């Protein structure tokens, strides 16, 4: 599957139960960060379990363009020889981040305080996403940016020659914004302080500390205050990337809604800033257990065991949980359609600026599948039809969004009539083995003529 080629229409049919073991790929957020910090360390960083999805491959290519030596040994094993903090070279060509907002925004932060320029672009989805949330704080360091109207890509970033440290209160709950500011703070003398009112995924803080940077985190009434001391020498690391909870969500949720299913998803990262979906599913009455809880590479990890759950109930998802499950609302809204009663998801307006407007994409697709949905700018409400209750029988639009495509294919595995997506190609950005993995569990996925 390729996210860059011709559309790949695909249809999911209801079949037998899903059974077996689902070994999902490495965590996308951690994979991007491993490449970036490896590129800024001095010496050889070894990475195992790296996600070899298109988003991360685009970041690997970008790190080469900035002068790091990035080698692929095979099967998720990579070696990065970094150039040191402040050692980036000016790229000779445009940096194409493909579909990846995380790639674009974190790389911008990483080069923003070096005396070089770089021009960034991406696919139609990424070119439509707001970059002002990154360039506003970067301007405080002295970085200049020249983009299209509304702060869109293509955009040229001119790094600050004499960056000054900043104190920045992140105005939206966004790990990408927080991380971009911290990464810019790396090549800035003095202390850069980032304050987030709501905790978002903390992989950047954890990994920077692992690479030897001085990072402190203090919880105060103002929020989480993160202080980074600039211009450290980052020491190369050996990084084991845990499997991605956001990818695990798909086989887990499919197992919960397909009759008779019993699926084990081993080795999933359960960092509390990422695990909100699983708590929500348990509150809905899902038969989901965590087995063999352990720590791997500084992150909590467990095996997830999901079984068909014919008695799930709609719930009100606490809005303060949103940052810990922000990427999981599309698949949660599918599960909600197979529960009884209403599932109310509030405080989710950030979904409107992801790879697509995910509230609109899910609402329109679920309606086409016979589900009643209510929405406003910040809310999605799904009226459940109970186990086996979704009529299906529709073609949905993926909108260049991997998580929308996978969500509707999972819906089709349990709906009364098949569900199609117009383009499954974007799945390659985060979960390139989705199709064979789900088929091995017993799913019936058919590539359909356009
Ligand atoms: C990510 C942060 C989140 C998330 C994205 C990955 C990251 O985006 O949706 O898939 O790796 O930092 P926001 O920072 O926009 O919330």
Features:
alpha/beta, four-stranded mixed β-sheet
Describe it:
- With 450 residues, the chain is an alpha/beta fold.
- It has 13 helices and 24 strands.
- It has helices at residues 28-40, 54-65, 101-111, 124-127, 132-141, 175-186, 203-210, 245-257, 276-283, 329-337, 358-368, 402-414, 434-441; strands at residues 10-13, 19-21, 42-48, 69-74, 77-83, 95-96, 117-121, 144-148, 152-158, 167-170, 191-196, 215-220, 223-229, 238-240, 262-269, 287-296, 299-307, 316-317, 340-346, 372-376, 379-385, 392-396, 417-421, 444-447.
- The strands form 6 sheets. Strands 22-23-1-24 form a 4-stranded mixed beta sheet. Strands 2-15-17-16 form a 4-stranded mixed beta sheet. A 4-stranded mixed beta sheet has the order 4-5-3-14, covered by helices on one side.
- A hairpin with a 2-residue loop joins strand 4 and strand 5 (77-83).
- It is globular and about 60 Å long.
- The model has no long low-confidence stretch (mean pLDDT 97).
- Shikimate-3-phosphate is lined by residues 29, 102, 174-176, 179, 201, 326-327, 350, 354.
């Amino acid at each position: 599957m390729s996210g860059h080629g011709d559309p790949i229409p695909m249809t999911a049919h209801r079949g037998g139960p899903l059974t077996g073991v689902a070994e999902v790929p490495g965590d996308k957020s951690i994979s991007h960060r491993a490449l970036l910090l490896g590129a800024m360390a001095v010496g050889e960083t070894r990475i195992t379990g790296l996600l070899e999805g298109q988003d991360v491959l685009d970041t690997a290519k970008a790190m080469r363009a900035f002068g790091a030596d990035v080698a692929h040994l095979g099967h998720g094993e990579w070696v990065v020889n970094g150039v040191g903090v402040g050692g980036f070279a000016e790229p000779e060509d445009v940096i194409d981040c493909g579909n990846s907002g995380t790639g674009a925004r974190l790389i911008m932060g990483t080069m923003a305080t070096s005396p070089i320029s770089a021009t960034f672009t991406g696919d139609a989805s990424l070119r439509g996403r707001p970059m002002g949330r990154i360039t506003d704080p970067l301007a405080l360091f002295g970085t200049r940016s020249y983009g299209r109207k509304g702060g869109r890509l293509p955009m040229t970033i001119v790094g600050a020659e004499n960056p000054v440290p900043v104190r920045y209160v992140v105005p939206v709950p966004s790990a990408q914004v927080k991380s971009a500011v911290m990464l810019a703070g790396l090549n800035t003398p003095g202390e850069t302080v980032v304050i987030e009112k709501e905790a978002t995924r903390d992989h950047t803080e954890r990994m920077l500390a692992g690479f030897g940077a001085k990072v402190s985190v203090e919880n105060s009434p103002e929020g989480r205050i993160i202080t980074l001391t600039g211009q450290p020498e980052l020491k190369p690391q050996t990084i084991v990337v845990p499997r991605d909870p956001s990818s695990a969500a798909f086989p887990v949720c499919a197992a919960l809604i397909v009759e008779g299913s019993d699926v084990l998803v081993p080795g999933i990262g359960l960092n509390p800033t990422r695990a909100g979906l699983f708590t929500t599913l348990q509150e809905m009455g899902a038969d989901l257990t965590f087995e063999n809880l352990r720590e791997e590479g500084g992150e909590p990890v467990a095996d997830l065991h999901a079984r068909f759950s014919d008695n799930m109930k709609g719930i009100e998802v606490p809005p303060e949980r949103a940052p810990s499950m922000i990427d999981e609302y599309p698949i949660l809204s599918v599960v909600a359609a197979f529960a009884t009663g209403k599932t109310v998801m509030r405080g989710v307006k950030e979904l409107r600026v992801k790879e697509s407007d995910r509230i609109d994409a899910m609402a329109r697709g679920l309606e086409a599948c016979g589900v009643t949905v209510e929405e406003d700018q910040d809310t999605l409400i799904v009226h459940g039809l109970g186990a086996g209750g979704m009529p299906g029988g529709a073609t949905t639009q993926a909108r260049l969004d991997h998580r929308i495509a996978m969500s509707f294919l999972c819906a089709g595995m349990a709906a009364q009539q098949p569900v199609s997506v117009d383009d499954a190609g974007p799945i390659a950005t985060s979960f390139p083995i989705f199709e064979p993995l789900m088929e091995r569990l017993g799913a019936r996925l058919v590539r359909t003529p356009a």
